[in-house]
Each structure stands twice: as structure tokens, then as C-alpha cells.
Write a structure and sequence with these properties.
This protein has two domains: 270 residues, Alpha-Beta Barrel (TIM Barrel), CATH 3.20.20; 198 residues, 3-Layer(aba) Sandwich (Rossmann fold), CATH 3.40.50.2020. 45% of the residues lie in helices and 18% in strands. The longest helix is centred in the middle third of the chain and has 28 residues.
């Protein structure tokens, strides 16, 4: 599991974006001794470990105490629970041979999982930190300090960089994307630089961004979240130090801040939903699913034996070529945000859908067989592929996610990497959480709630039917 797969698994598991900074400022210590530094940090770790996505010790505050301070830094990193990543804020960089020593110090000696690195010396100074996919780099891109503009805002506009790149920090972002071949490189962009944060996010829609600058440096939380969140509500790490360490109750401070962040995340998600729902393609496709009987209201016995007031039958899509084209087209914006080598269709409903997607997007396709052939190649997976390739699983519908795991296990056994599942409709019956628990992200064109909201607003379905389905979903969960 790469560093960022681990980080994202942690973020989704506890539904948080907060990175707790371990910055033992002299004025916050009981005495100016290494032991006081150790006690300060261990107190914060113990108080906030269940709410922190990551911890970020700043090496300068430890190095100030000489060899004993470095020893304390090592002890502090070791004290962090194993499932929580540690980002060493050291801003290292040098010529390749020296960078190797820095990487060895940060990862092997001190035990950090990631380190902040200065890109000014170029790729050969970054490469030694990227060799192990379990370890990661956060590349300084647009920093939060006042003097950042002196160099990072230098104009480099011109044909060489394309029409979308105007500043040096944008060039750094693009290079970071290029260098991220092992899924172990993120960027540092100040939360108090919202315009820059938005420009970077547009250039690198998938990378994780460490965004310091909230609080004392003047960053506005809601503006930063609007500018820097990925479309799935993740991808932005908010480091907070003094606002937590100087609080009377550090755990309560983290909890309150996390609640505030999640409120903003929810608002941003709703904005994106509303925006997508106002488009012609959304309304047309949603109404076509209803019109063609792919979604029906009534009384239906499910596989589980429950009687449901709604039934989703997406296999009917294949009888309407125009609808099949529309459905495939609706997957493309989600897939264009992901990094992968091939698509995998799950038999049987997703086979025609994925085929239509590949015809539009130009991607190669595989599919795992439900029954292994007893003759010929006896293949479990049909199609050409190479172990180590990253694939995205395509399905029509997801409820609990259980049907996906058998196929995913076959893919992993064959040496393929699976990080994402994309479906047309998420029935919201626990699949997202179940997949997230094993490090897999679920993306959907629609959630069932979005469809219900649309049909309710446009009066395509009676209020009684909508209420019945909502109550059923609520009781089902």
C-alpha cells in the first residue's frame, strides 16, 4: 500500500482532514529542555490520536536542542500509533548524494513516513526521497509565508508551458504530477493563498495537498476548502498546530475543528451536486432512466427477501442504444479525473456499459469471468493486461459492495492494482464504507438520493413514493 493509499484510508475511516502539528514552541514548554519537548508532544499525541489523519512534527524545534533533541524527535515519531502517518516537516533538498542521506535520515533513522522537500534543485534532488512507494514527499509548491511571492509567483508564461501555466509555482505543480510515478508525491500549497490553491487544484485534480496557513497565518477555512478539495471531498490535508496545542482541551479543539471542516465539506459537496443537477445531461439521463423502466416504483421482493418500494433494473439500458450512449458518456467526467491503465467490467450488466465507455474514451477493457473456462486458456480474466497495471472497476449499480469483492480479489491475485470503482447509481446501502475499509474509492454518476431529489423537484414521482423510498433506505441502513 502506497503512502497516499494509506493516508486516504485513514482519512476516510475517521472522516477527517486534520493533520496535528507537533511544534514545541519555547513559550509553550514547561522548561527549555529536550524532556519538556518530549512531554509536550506525547501529551498532544495521546489527546488527539483518534481524530488525527496524520501528525506533522517540525524538525527545527527539535534540532534546536542538539543531539538530545534529535533523539526526542525519534521517540516522538515512534510514539505515534502505527496506523497514523507521520509527516516530517523538514523542507529538505540538496544534490543527489546528499539528498540520499537526508532521505535515509528522515525515513530510516527517524522513522517518518513522509517529508517536506524543496523542489528548487530539480528532480535529481527529489528522486532519492521517492524510491520507496511506502514513503512520500510533499513538494513545496506555493508556501504560506509572506515572502513566497518573491520567487514562486515569477511569470513563466509562454508556449513552452502552455496557456494554462502562468507562474513558477504552477510549473512545480505540473512537475510534481509528472514525478508522481509511485503515488507517493503530494504538494504543499498555503491555505492562505486561495487563488493559488484553486489554480493548483485545477492543474492536479488528484494529488493530495498539504495546506498550512489556517488560523494565525490568516487562512480562511471555508475559502481554502472550496479552493483545494478534490471533487470527492478529500485530497486536502489541513495542518493545525498552536490552535490545538494551546487549547485548554486539545482533543475538544480537534473535534470542533473537524466538525467545522466537515460542515464546509458537506456544503461544498451539495454545491457540486446542485451544479451537476442543473445541467441538461443530468436531468435528461435521470428522466430517461425513469421513462425506460430502469427505475420503477411499487412493491418488489429483493434478493435479500426484503420488500422494496423501488427497483433498479439497469440491464434494460442495452435495449435502448441512445440511452446506452448517454449512460457511457456520463461516466467520462469521473474517469477523466482518475489515473489508470485499463477498465474492468463486472459481468454481466456492466459489460455493455463498459464497452460503450471504452468506445467513447478510447480505453482498453478487461473482465473477470464468473465461471472459469474448463478448456483452452482457462482464463479467469479476459483481455490483455500486465501485472502491476492500475485498473478501474466499472459496474452499473452498487448497494452493499459485496458483489464487487470477489471480482476485485481475482484482479489483485492477477497482479493488478485496484483503487477505484465507478458505478452509475450508488444505492447508498453501505458500499462506499465497505470499499473504503479496504482502501478502494467509490465514485458514482448518481446517488439514489440525488435521483429522488430531482424526481421530487420535477414532480416526476409522487411525494408518497419518494417518502416511502426514503424511509426504506433509512431503515435499511
Amino acid at each position: 500500500m502506497s503512502f497516499f493509499e494509506r493516508l486516504e484510508l485513514r482519512a476516510r475511516k475517521i472522516d477527517s482532514l486534520i493533520c496535528v502539528g507537533l511544534d514545541p514552541h519555547p513559550e509553550d514548554l514547561a522548561s527549555l529542555t529536550p524532556e519538556a519537548v518530549r512531554v509536550f508532544c506525547l501529551r498532544l499525541i495521546e489527546a488527539t490520536a483518534d481524530l488525527a489523519v496524520a501528525f506533522k512534527p517540525n524538525s527545527a524545534f527539535f534540532e534546536a536542542y542538539g543531539p538530545e533533541g534529535i533523539s526526542v524527535l525519534k521517540q516522538v515519531i515512534k510514539a505515534v500509533p502505527e496506523d497514523i502517518p507521520v509527516i516530517l516537516d523538514a523542507k529538505r533538498a540538496d544534490i543527489a548524494s546528499t539528498a540520499e542521506a537526508y532521505a535515509h535520515s528522515a525515513f530510516d533513522v527517524l522513522g517518518a513516513h513522509a517529508v517536506t522537500v524543496n523542489p528548487y534543485l530539480g528532480y535529481d534532488a527529489i528522486e532519492p526521497f521517492l524510491g520507496n512507494p511506502d514513503k512520500a514527499v510533499f513538494l513545496l509548491c506555493k508556501t504560506s509565508n509572506p515572502g513566497a511571492a518573491d520567487l514562486q509567483d515569477l511569470s513563466i508564461a509562454g508556449k513552452e508551458y502552455g496557456s494554462t501555466v502562468h507562474y513558477l509555482y504552477e510549473r512545480v505543480a505540473i512537475l510534481g504530477q509528472k514525478w508522481n510515478t509511485r503515488d507517493n508525491l503530494g504538494l504543499v500549497v498555503g491555505a492562505n493563498q486561495p487563488e493559488s490553491l484553486a489554480r493548483v487544484r485545477a492543474l492536479v485534480p488528484d494529488l493530495w495537498i498539504l495546506a498550512p496557513g489556517i488560523g494565525r497565518q490568516g487562512g480562511d477555512l471555508s475559502i481554502a476548502l472550496h479552493a483545494g478539495l478534490r471533487t470527492d471531498g478529500f485530497g486536502l490535508l489541513i495542518p493545525v498546530s498552536r490552535a490545538i496545542s494551546r487549547a485548554d482541551n486539545p482533543r475538544k479543539a480537534v473535534s470542533q475543528l473537524n466538525d467545522e471542516i466537515n460542515r464546509y465539506r458537506s456544503i461544498e459537496k451539495e454545491k457540486k451536486i446542485v451544479s451537476s443537477q442543473t445541467t441538461h445531461s443530468f436531468t435528461t439521463l435521470a428522466d430517461e432512466l425513469l421513462k425506460t423502466g430502469c427505475v420503477k416504483f411499487g412493491q418488489y421482493i429483493l434478493k435479500s427477501g426484503l420488500v422494496s418500494p423501488i427497483y433498479i433494473d439497469l440491464r434494460r439500458i442495452i435495449s435502448n442504444p441512445h440511452l446506452l450512449f448517454q449512460v457511457a458518456e456520463a461516466y467520462l467526467p469521473l474517469l477523466n479525473q482518475l489515473s489508470f491503465d485499463r477498465l474492468v467490467a463486472l459481468p454481466y450488466a456492466a459489460l455493455p456499459i463498459a464497452t460503450a465507455i471504452c468506445l467513447q474514451g478510447g480505453w482498453p477493457m478487461l473482465y473477470p469471468r464468473k465461471e472459469v473456462k474448463s478448456y483452452g486458456t482457462r482464463a479467469e480474466i479476459e483481455g490483455e493486461f500486465h501485472p502491476g497495471e492500475r485498473v478501474v472497476v466499472i459496474d452499473d449499480l452498487t448497494s452493499t459492495g459485496g458483489s464487487k469483492f470477489e471480482a476485485i480479489e481475482k484482479l489483485i491475485t492477477a497482479g493488478l492494482q485496484v483503487s477505484d470503482v465507478v458505478v452509475l447509481i450508488d444505492r447508498q446501502s453501505g458500499a462506499s464504507e465497505a470499499l473504503s475499509d479496504v482502501g478502494i474509492r467509490l465514485h458514482s454518476v448518481f446517488t439514489l438520493s440525488q435521483l429522488l431529489d430531482h424526481w421530487e423537484q420535477t414532480q416526476k414521482v409522487t411525494p408518497e413514493q419518494i417518502t416511502s423510498v426514503r424511509n426504506f433506505l433509512k431503515n435499511e441502513s
